Amino acid sequence: MSRQPQAVPAPQRQAKRYAYYHDLSIVYEGTSLDVPVRAPDISCDGMFINTAQRFPEGAVLCIRFRLRRTDQVITARGEVRYCLPGVGVGVEFIGLSEDAQRAILEESGGNRDDWY
Question: Taking the domains of the chain in order of start, what are their residue ranges?
Fold first, then answer.
C-alpha cells in the first residue's frame, strides 16, 4: 500500500499582501542560475514567489521588481523561509531599506487594510 504525500501547509502570514507590481527577477545568490518566476504577492516584510525551482530554507535570493503605480524599482535580498515544491517559495526580506518599505506601502495607497 503506497502512502500519499502529505501537503505541507504554508506558515501563517504575519503581514497582509499586495499583488500590484511587475518585472520580477530573482538570482540565487552565489550562482548564475536563471530562475523562471511568475507574479507573486508582496508585503513590506517579504513575498511569495511562484516558481517550480526548489530552494532550501535559508537560501538567499537577490530580488528585483518594479512597482506598477509609481514605476519605482525595488531591489532587495530575501531569505527563503519555506518552500512548497512545484508551487513556490516564501521569502522574507533582509535589510529592506526604509525607502523601499515606504514605496511598497505607498503603492497600496498607504493603507495596509487594503492588502489581502
Answer: 21-108
